[in-house]
């Protein structure tokens, strides 16, 4: 070997990196123990025999010739090269290399420091994985934040709709209450003892009907959203039902001076449907058209059969719908404008109720509008049923006089029922608690008992069971008269032994029917 070599020592041989010394052409002059172990050679098999380039892969050798050598010649060092060396057995050794060119004893020498890059690659891989995991976690956090923002926006919108609904509900309930209160004050101020004016009675009748309709709509939507609405399907002639619905809304159309054109086929249009629910659909659509059409407008109702479907369309020339509202008009509490700006709007549940009923029947409902102030058209499609003969309804006769017991803890409500039943020709008694009712029933032996459910001592269900346990009570007709009108409440009543279930305020035509018709 040319030139003097630095003395070997233990630190040099045992260094945690491979150390090589070569001349300018790459001939190895020394290799420490670490480098020999990594490369699979003994020190005497390398020194003066092997060139560094011989330990490189083809690609590394080319890179060393074209890049390393010029840099060493130019600046005397090369740092952190990533090259592959070969083990004695031919396996590839990824190395991180630093080279420094020095002049030792008048000769150019290259000092090599080798670091196994496999551990570095593993470390870098872990770093990349950690970075990727951190980026994914950050993106997940951002997605969660976006979802949270969207949910907050939805909650804010729902909260605004709730506030609008409560404000509107208050307004809508006050509307019928105000004229009823005024009519009552007029009756109180009259001192001539004359019979109540027919106009006052009509006010009470109309406004009580309106209140009942509001509460019924709320209950119906609740049943639909909880998937508890029960349909009583039967063969139904839509042509006849639409004629009846037109009559039901005639007063509203006349009051608003609307022109209603009705185009019905001459033949029946039969569907398998619940008459009460479909009547709600038609009445709601006509009422909606009347409310949102300025006075003196035109409304067209058309019924036809197309492609195995009954098609009912209600078109108006009213305020129309902006494009953004077409997708939300059937949403619960959906309103086109704030409550204070509406003079005739409803609670925002009518169209949601209509959509729910139509879909329960396997039908669809759609809406079209060319824009604001250009009117709108709502179209309902229901599956057609095979034509059948529909029997005309038989008018129920007035009930025969009977002994009737009315049980209600509200004395005014009980008194009003007593007055009505006396007009029916019935003999009546009242009780305001369950215990009092049991005593009256034993002495009076009523044929029929109208029982409130919320009594101060026993509830109406328990009272019904106790009445049924008596000799006379087994033959008694029991009618639940209650404000609880969900389907589960009806079932509880029938399970307790009731024959009929009527919701307050009592519809006297339904009461007549219950009194005159045994069983459910």
Strand order within the widest beta sheet:
2-1-5-4-3
The count of strands amounts to 17
Spans of at least 5 consecutive residues whose pLDDT stays below 50 are 336-344, 388-399
**Overall outline:** elongated
| Amino-to-carboxy terminus distance | 119 Å
SS summary, helix count: 14
- Helix fraction by DSSP (H/I, runs of at least 4): 40-55%
Structural class computed from helices and strand pairing = alpha/beta
Please state the CA-atom Rg, rounded to the nearest Å: 46 Å
Mean residue pLDDT: 80
Beta-sheet strand percentage? 15-25%
In a nutshell, what does this entry contain?
The protein has 520 residues and is α/β, with parallel strands linked by helices. 44% of the residues lie in helices and 21% in strands.
Give your account of this protein's structure.
- It contains 14 helices and 17 strands.
- With 520 residues, it is an alpha/beta fold.
- The strands form four sheets. The protein has a five-stranded antiparallel β-sheet.
- Helix 4 (117-189) packs antiparallel against helix 5, helix 5 (198-225) crosses helix 9 and helix 11 packs parallel to helix 12 (460-468).
- The longest helix has 73 residues, at 117-189.
- The radius of gyration is 46 Å and the shape is elongated.
- Residues 336-344 and 388-399 have low confidence and may be disordered.
């Amino acid at each position: 070997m040319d030139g003097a070599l630095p003395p070997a020592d233990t630190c040099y041989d045992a260094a945690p990196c491979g150390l090589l010394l070569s001349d300018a052409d790459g001939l190895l002059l020394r290799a420490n123990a670490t480098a020999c172990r990594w490369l699979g050679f003994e020190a005497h098999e390398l020194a003066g025999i092997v060139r560094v380039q011989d330990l490189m892969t083809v690609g590394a050798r080319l890179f060393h010739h074209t890049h390393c050598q010029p840099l060493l010649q130019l600046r005397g060092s090369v740092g952190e090269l990533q090259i592959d060396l070969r083990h004695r057995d031919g396996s590839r050794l990824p190395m991180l290399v630093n080279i420094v060119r020095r002049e030792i004893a008048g000769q150019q020498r290259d000092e090599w420091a080798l670091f196994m890059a496999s551990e570095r690659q593993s470390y870098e891989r872990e770093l990349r994985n950690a970075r990727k995991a951190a980026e994914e976690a950050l993106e997940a956090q951002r997605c969660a934040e976006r979802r949270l923002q969207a949910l907050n926006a939805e909650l804010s919108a729902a909260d605004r709709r709730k506030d609008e609904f409560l404000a509107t509900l208050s307004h809508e309930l006050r509307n019928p209450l105000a004229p009823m209160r005024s009519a009552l004050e007029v009756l109180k101020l009259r001192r001539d003892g004359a019979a109540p004016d027919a106009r006052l009675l009509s006010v009470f009748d109309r406004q009580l009907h309106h209140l009942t309709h509001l509460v019924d709509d709320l209950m119906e939507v609740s049943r639909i959203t909880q998937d508890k609405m029960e349909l009583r399907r039967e063969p139904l002639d839509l042509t006849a039902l639409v004629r009846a619905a037109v009559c039901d809304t005639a007063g509203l159309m006349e009051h608003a001076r609307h022109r209603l054109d009705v185009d019905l086929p001459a033949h029946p249009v039969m569907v398998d449907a619940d008459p009460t629910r479909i009547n709600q659909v038609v009445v709601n659509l006509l009422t909606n058209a009347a409310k949102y059409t300025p006075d003196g407008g035109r409304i067209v109702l058309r019924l036809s059969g197309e492609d195995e479907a009954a098609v009912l369309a209600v078109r108006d020339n009213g305020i129309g719908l902006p494009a953004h509202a077409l997708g939300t008009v059937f949403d619960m509490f959906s309103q086109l404008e704030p409550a204070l700006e509406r003079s005739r709007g409803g609670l925002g549940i009518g169209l949601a109720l209509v959509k729910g009923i139509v879909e329960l029947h396997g039908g669809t409902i759609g809406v079209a509008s060319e824009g604001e102030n250009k009117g709108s058209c709502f179209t309902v499609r229901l599956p057609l049923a095979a034509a059948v003969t529909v029997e005309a309804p038989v008018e129920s006769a007035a009930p025969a006089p009977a002994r009737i017991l009315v049980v209600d803890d509200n004395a005014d409500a009980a008194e009003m029922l007593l007055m009505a039943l006396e007009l029916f020709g019935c003999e009546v008694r009242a009780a305001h608690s369950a215990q009092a009712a049991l005593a009256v029933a034993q002495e009076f032996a009523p044929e029929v008992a109208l029982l409130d459910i919320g009594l101060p001592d026993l509830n109406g269900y328990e009272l019904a069971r106790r009445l049924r346990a008596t000799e006379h009570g087994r033959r008694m007709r029991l009618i639940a008269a209650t404000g609880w009108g969900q389907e589960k409440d009806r079932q509880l009543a029938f399970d307790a032994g009731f024959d009929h279930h009527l919701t307050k305020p009592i519809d006297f035509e339904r009461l007549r029917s219950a009194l005159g018709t045994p069983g459910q």
